[in-house]
Amino acid sequence: MTYQYPSHGQGQGYGQGSGQGQSYGHGYPDSPTAPVVAGWNDDRTGWDTPTAAWSTPPTRARVERPRSGEHLLDVRDLWIEFATRDGVARVVNGVSFHVDPGETLAILGESGSGKSVTAQAVLGILDTPPAVVRSGQALFSGEDLLTMTPERRRQVRGQEIAMVFQDALSALNPVYPVGWQITEALRSRRGVSKAEARRRAVEMMDLVQIPAAAQRIDDYPHQFSGGMRQRVMIAMALAMRPKVLIADEPTTALDVTVQAQIMDLLATLRAELEMALILITHDLGVVADVADRITVMYAGRVVEHADVHTLYGAPAHPYTRGLLASVPRLERRGQGLHSISGTPPNPVAIPAGCAFHPRCPYAQQMCRMTEPTLLRIGRLDRASACHFPPEALDARHA
Amino acid sequence: MSDLEMAATTELGTHAADTPPAGATPPPKTRSLAADAWYDLRRNWIFWVAAALVVLVILMAVVPGLFSGADPTACNTRRQFAGPSGGAILGYDFQGCDVFSRTVHGARASVLVGLFAVLLTGVIGLVFGMLAGYFGGWLDALLSRVVDVVLGIPLLLAAIVLSKRLAADRQGSGIATVVIVLGILGWTTAARVMRSSVLTARSQDYVAAARMLGAGPLRIMWRHILPNALAPFIVVLTITLGTFIATEATLSFLNIGLRPPAISWGIDIATAGKHVREAAMPLIAPSLFLTLTVLAFIMLGDAIRDAFDPKLRR
Q1: Which keywords, in A-to-Z order, does the entry hold (chain A) (predicted)?
Q2: Cβ contact (<8 Å) for B209 and A233?
Q3: Interchain proximity B310–A175, CB inside 8 Å
Q4: A185 vs B213: CB contact, 8 Å cut-off?
Q5: Which of residues 17-36 of B touch A (CB under 8 A)?
Q6: What distance in Å separates the CA atoms of residue A353 and residue A14, rounded to the nearest whole number?
Q7: Do B209 and A185 touch (CB under 8 A)?
């Protein structure tokens, strides 16, 4: 299977009104080396024609949004540690990102890069202890999720921000019919009557395109296939119409063919319900068609962020380059598969300097000494945490 | 029939199963977990056998006169070990009492002791296990140590002390005393089993999903963890029920359980055991009923556990 990246266009409707020629850099400091850790602005794009068919990707159109300066969800400089037997595991180290309604942010990283922990912290379902949120903010409509009262927190959960789990089979309670589960929150928190809840459950199952919803409402999770189960999970998360949906590796447990359908469904729903979608994944392939912007994490840090076209077309950070190079491609048939040498760092002992230096083909002495900050690159809407600008890396590579 | 035809029929069959023809069944209402379990139980013959036995034993306990008109306390040593006769179909025991009548009347004490002691055990075990497993931390440490301490108390020794203490305050058969003694000392296994199932269930994704949707601790414990943690607990309780009825016999035998005016299988087994060479029936009859009762409750527990697990449904 080959993935087609937006930047490789190939007449699939990408690249129209995207990336090139737009004016970026509003409000950016003049210095090209100014850190842009927080408050990273961009022009957002969104689907304007929702469609369920994988073969016909929706065309992208620019959607102008007023710049109010406040994002729907704005995570700023988040630090999270775990107390373990071997010492303090620094799992999230100063992560920042934001999303707005109708946009999709993909958070990309290997297992252990801190992406799921970040999502759990935002949602407030992180077990503390062992986890400790050291510092940072998670502003939802200007309100800090990390400091609000537990009661207010519970209000936000599910109603404003919801999450789709990786493995729907274990995320659905085995002893209840799916219809019961989809509307449990509606019944218990909004006082919806049983008959009304039943109607809403069918409605939600229709929305996530489960065939014969009315007949399957009393079936149990184990009676569904993997893809259908994930649809049930999505319906459950969306039952209260949250403004932000976090999907934590929603397709990892699924077949490749089903992955595409679920991704498509998420994209369609995001557009239909005008919500913000955060896609957490380790798979570059599945997000290419859905994401607007991508944040790449490594060892609990953001190492690069950019809009999807720039990231796939001209990755700036050596780690992102390695990830892209390791995706199997049809045109490189016959050649060996590329992989990033080494293993992800142990969060208890993150390497000094740039955390990626032991695995980086470009590493120099300074990479072992100094930790690079996330810097804006050129005038484009992208930033990378590497001591070397992309051109320098290109020159070295050549 | 060719393979193709077979395939087509199977296809049709499954399709028909997926979408029942309109009018065949009324539109299904949302069934609760209990209603689904009941639907499953109704089609389980083991459940019916167990339920029939349990109903029989409970009937014996409530209205013994229905089964035997003879007075179990009208004993006459002249009839010692007499064989079956018109009035007493199982003959007479050491004291010259009607064996069948005593067995029927003995059900009441045994069933009362068993049921109430298990009820007490279940409540204590459920609360301890759920709190320890769900909240963890210092509460778990504290409750687990309490369990360890109670588990360390020798049952018979404590039963002797406790029943002397409790019996001093009340006259009568001593059923309440035995129930309290068994309940206070016997809940530890149930609590431990509950705690470990709760620990397993609470780390499941569906609990995280419920929290993600804003469910509070009570709802998570009651609606999400309990149904998933109940199966081993029910099994332990049914086994405990059997051992409690047997322990009641032991306590009665040691003269710290039920007192002689009361009639129980335990007392009768204890007395008849000494004279088994002279007559076996006074031992066999109460033992058989005790075994059947314990078996019935265990089977009932098994069937109920299976019915609450949707994956085992046919």
Answers
A1: ATP-binding, Cell membrane, Membrane, Nucleotide-binding, Transport
A2: yes
A3: yes
A4: yes
A5: 18-20, 28, 30-31, 33, 36
A6: 38
A7: no
Residue B229 located in a structural domain? yes
Give tens-digit pLDDT for A28-53: 344 344 444 333 333 333 333 333 33
Give residue-wise pLDDT tens across range B259-301: 767 788 888 887 888 888 888 888 888 889 888 888 888 888 8
Residue B15 counted as domain residue: no
The answer to whether A286 contacts chain B (CB < 8 Å) is no
Nearest to A158 among B213, B227, B310 (CB): B213
- How many separate domains does chain B show? 1
Question: Which residues, 6+ apart, have CB-to-CB distance to A233 below 8 Å?
Answer: A164, A165, A168, A171, A172, B209
Q: What is the CATH number of the domain that holds B159?
A: 1.10.3720.10
pLDDT, tens only, B24-61: 444 444 456 677 778 878 888 888 999 999 899 889 88
The domain limits of chain A are 1-160+242-398, 170-241
Whether B116 maps to a domain, the answer reads yes
ipTM of the complex: 0.72
Beta bridge partners of A302: A297
CATH number of A1-160+242-398: 3.40.50.300
Q: Which two tokens stand for residue A42?
A: 């961009």
B18 in any annotated domain: no
- Whether the CB-CB separation of A230 and A164 falls below 8 Å is answered with yes
Q: Give the strand order in the sheet containing A143-144.
A: A87-99, A73-84, A131-140, A143-144
pLDDT digits (tens, 9 = 90+) for B237-248: 887 887 888 788
Which of A173, A177, A185 is closest, CB to CB, to B224?
Answer: A173
- Would you state the pLDDT for residue B169? 55
| Interface A-B: count of C-beta contacts within 8 A | 90
B230 phi and psi angles, rounded to 5 deg: -75, -35
- What is the per-residue pLDDT across A267-308, written as a single tens digit (0 to 9) for each? 888 888 888 999 998 888 778 888 888 999 988 888 888 888
